[in-house]
Design a protein that fits this description.
The complex is a heterodimer of chains A (about 110) and B (about 675). Chain A has four helices and no strands. Chain A is an all-alpha fold. In chain A, α1 crosses α2, α2 crosses α3 and α3 runs antiparallel to α4. Chain A starts with a helix and ends with a helix. Chain B is elongated. Chain B has a two-stranded antiparallel sheet with strand order 1-2. Helix content of chain B is about 75%, strand content about 0%. Classes of the chains: A mainly alpha (about 110), B mainly alpha (about 675). At the A-B interface, α2, α3 and α4 of A face α24, α30 and α31 of B.
Chain lengths: ~110, ~675
């Protein structure tokens, strides 16, 4: 009973998450549609959100695998960079962002020290 | 001898019964039960053809149990040999049955016996070969082995009427046996039949039988193989239609092969080699057939030239800039460099084409080829330049990277080349090998550098490349001066050999782009060190030497000459691909497949390297591979790696990969 309840909870959570993703994808597609002057059908947005959700699941599994591969128990930016190396543009973008983050972290630390 | 006697008796029962031996029937009666007990192979085949045709019939009559067979042992043998086998086999089977049936029981016993038992019987009992008759028994035995039980009935029926209805029997037998008799080789049958034919004709009044039998057999079986020579062959494997080996033809073929190989290597890029190979072979085959010289003279050029020119455009179009660089930048043999550089320096080879006049045949062949590539390559270059400068630079950088080793070694190369020219034969062979090996491996050899290049090419992101381009252009000017002396040195050597010229061309071409490669190569270099040590070393050398502006050619040249870029053999790729596609594949398709597989393996190894670095190691371990396979989707939560190993790898590998615990606290392989 408890497992069933847990499963139900998970299913509910999944649904909510999917809904959130769907909403976000819809907003993004709207922006792109205005930008490029193209129309997005509902099915398209639904398909994109479904794909995004499944890909996020895959990403999570891969990230965990990478972290374990490095004998760590925390997923770090290194794992994320490894995940993104397939796509060079994405890798570059993520590297930039990670550098920004680290630099901002450093700045915060310096501020704290001060 | 007991067996022998028995056999003979069995076989000769009809014979003896016929009259050769008055005791035949008696023996039959006596031995019948005995035979059965022993499971004697009262095989028809063992029949000694001694007896005249009538004997079987006589033998038949006294037979109580199963009249069958008999018959005409001879005819039955002939039938068996003739093979429709149906009749012969059936008869044999029937003979067997009849023999077995010495006891008055009917067929059922045979039904109980399996072919295996019968075969055992046959094997146990030696075939009795009468000096007068050919070894038909062996044929019969083998045929019997193939016969099947169900056919016996039919054969037995046929036997009854055999004397008069041999053709019918044959047809019936054939009808029944055709399906099962397919294994029987008609030619063998007919040969055997032919053997017996003269004897049969002589011995039995039924000479017509065999001939008609054969005819009917042929008709029924649709065999169109004419009977072979009347040779006696016992249990030997038939030599089959083997032609006597003609030494001249053999040697001629060997020479042709050698020449073809040389032609292939010299005439075509590594990329095009496989594609043009068949064309070259086809065109050169005739010429080579008649030409027994060690080196083929320029006559071949026309044909090969035409084909090459036809193929070159196709190839060049299909090639990417990376390919061009790969082709143009073999790191080893200069001759290979000649081939590749020709491919890459299409734009510039025109003015050098006239210089391509060497005694070597390969050079002769090269000259027709060189004009072709230049035109094509120029177009390609233009196209590429239009596409994206970074792309071209990347490709050029790749070329340069590979070409830089050549540049550095130029001064040393000229000496090498001179020596080479003097030893044409050796050169050709080695160059052929090198060219081929390099051509195949060139792409893989560049992996260290090409990693970035390939990635860049895969996604020509202006932003990404712009940065790298900027870096490159910065160093570009500084490098150019350093390259000039190299070019001069190379050009000096041009007079001496084509290869030098080609290298010069390569250098000119690659000069401007040399620098970009360095920066590009630096990043992957750190990673590349782990994957392909040889390539990484070479690249490191090539990268550092331009910076010095005065490279040390000799050492790098000499060392580079021996190192081989690893690459998957194109023949292997062809075989595997053809096997899985189950259809004929065009040559160009093979090239594309090879490129794809190259790209794929490059990506794979770069991933592996990244995973290994991620784990802070320098050696690729099984864990890295498991991560890779998980990323590929081959290993999942449901499908562990171990199961994949067990399923797809041979036992030897499994033993190495999967530890097994045995008694005594022992684990194999020991960890």
């Amino acid at each position: 009973a408890m497992e069933a309840a847990g499963a139900e909870e998970r299913a509910l959570l999944t649904q909510r998450l999917k809904a959130a993703v769907h909403y976000t994808v819809g907003c993004l597609c709207q922006d792109v549609a205005e930008d490029k002057d193209v129309q997005f059908s509902k099915q398209t947005i639904a398909a994109i959100s479904e794909i995004t959700f499944r890909q996020c699941e895959t990403f999570a599994k891969d990230l965990e695998m990478f972290a374990r591969h490095a004998k760590r128990s925390t997923v770090t930016t290194e794992d994320v960079k490894l995940l993104a190396r397939r796509s060079t543009s994405l890798l570059k973008y993520i590297t930039q962002k990670s550098e920004e983050i680290t630099s901002s972290n450093m700045e915060q630390k310096e501020k704290k020290k001060k | 001898m007991d067996n022998g006697a028995r056999l003979r008796a069995d076989g000769g029962r009809p014979v003896r019964a016929g009259g050769c031996d008055g005791q035949g029937p008696l023996r039959r009666g006596q031995e019948g039960p005995g035979r059965e007990r022993r499971g004697a192979a009262g095989l028809g085949p063992i029949l000694s053809p001694l007896c005249p045709g009538t004997s079987p019939r006589a033998a038949e009559a006294p037979r109580s149990g199963a009249p069958r067979r008999a018959g005409p042992r001879q005819p039955s043998e002939a039938v068996a040999l003739a093979g429709a086998g149906a009749g012969g086999v059936e008869q044999k089977g029937a003979g067997r049955t009849t023999l077995l049936k010495q006891r008055p029981t009917a067929l059922p016993d045979l039904d109980n016996e399996t072919p295996r038992v019968m075969l055992k019987r046959i094997i146990r009992t030696q075939p009795q070969v009468s000096p007068l008759a050919p070894r038909i028994s062996t044929h019969e035995e083998t045929e019997e082995a193939r016969s099947e039980l169900p056919s016996r009935r039919v054969s037995s029926m046929g036997e009854m009427q055999l004397p008069d209805l041999v053709p019918e029997n044959t047809s019936i037998a054939a009808f029944h046996m055709t399906k099962k008799r397919k294994k029987l080789s008609i030619s063998e049958f007919e040969r055997a039949a032919d053997k017996r034919l003269p004897q049969n004709q002589g011995k039995f009044g039924k000479s017509s039988l065999p001939s008609s039998f054969y005819r009917s057999l042929r008709i029924s079986l649709g065999s169109l193989i004419p009977p072979d020579t009347v040779e006696k062959r016992g249990l030997l494997r038939r030599p089959k239609y083997r032609k006597a080996i003609d030494m001249e033809a053999f040697e001629g073929g060997v020479e042709q092969n050698m020449l073809k190989r040389k032609a292939q290597d010299y005439l075509v890029d590594s990329q095009t080699a496989s594609g043009i190979q068949t064309a070259l072979l086809a065109s050169d085959a005739e010429i080579m057939l008649s030409n027994t010289e060690l080196f083929v003279q320029p006559q071949l050029d026309e044909q090969s030239q035409n084909k090459l020119s036809a193929l070159e455009p196709q190839l060049s179009d299909s090639k990417t800039s990376a390919q061009r660089s790969k082709i143009s930048a073999p790191e080893e043999a200069r001759l290979a460099g000649l081939v590749s550089s020709v491919g890459t320096n299409k734009g510039r080879t025109q003015r050098y084409s006239k210089d391509f006049i060497l005694d070597c045949e390969h050079i002769d062949r090269m000259s027709p080829v060189s004009p072709e590539p230049p035109a094509n390559q120029q177009e390609e270059k233009q196209r590429h330049s239009q596409q994206s400068n970074p792309m071209e630079q990347l490709s050029g950088s790749e070329e340069v990277v590979v070409g830089t080793p050549e540049h550095h070694a130029n001064s040393g190369y000229s000496e090498h080349l001179e020596k080479k020219l003097s030893k044409k034969a050796e050169l050709e062979i080695s160059a052929a090998e090198d060219a081929r090996a390099e051509a195949e491996m060139a792409p893989s050899a560049e992996e260290g550098i090409a990693e970035g290049g390939v990635e860049h090419q895969g996604s020509p992101d202006a932003g990404v490349e712009a940065g790298s381009v900027g870096r490159r252009s910065h160093a570009f000017s500084s490098e150019k001066s350093g390259l000039k002396p190299l070019e001069e040195a190379v050009e000096q050597a041009d007079d001496q050999a084509d290869e030098l010229e080609d290298q010069a061309i390569t250098i000119e071409l690659d000069g401007p782009e040399e620098e970009p490669t360095e920066d590009e190569a630096e990043d992957p270099e750190s990673e590349g060190k782990k994957t392909i040590a040889a390539a990484a070393e070479v690249f490191a050398v090539s990268q550092r030497s331009p910076l010095q502006a005065k490279p040390v050619p000799k050492s790098s040249g000499a060392s580079r000459r021996k190192t081989r870029e690893p690459a998957v053999a194109s023949s292997l790729i062809k075989k595997i691909f053809s096997h899985y596609v189950k259809m004929p594949v065009a040559r160009d398709a093979f090239k594309i497949v090879e490129k794809c597989s190259e790209r794929y393996f490059k990506q794979l190894s770069s991933d592996l390297e990244a995973y290994t670095t991620h784990a802070g190691r320098k050696t690729v371990e099984m864990a890295d591979l498991e991560v890779l396979m998980r990323r590929q989707g081959l290993v999942t939560d449901k499908m562990p790696l171990r199961v994949l190993i067990e399923r797809y790898l041979p036992l030897e590998y499994r033993k190495v990969l999967i530890p097994v615990a045995v008694s005594g606290n022992k684990v194999i392989p020991c960890k």
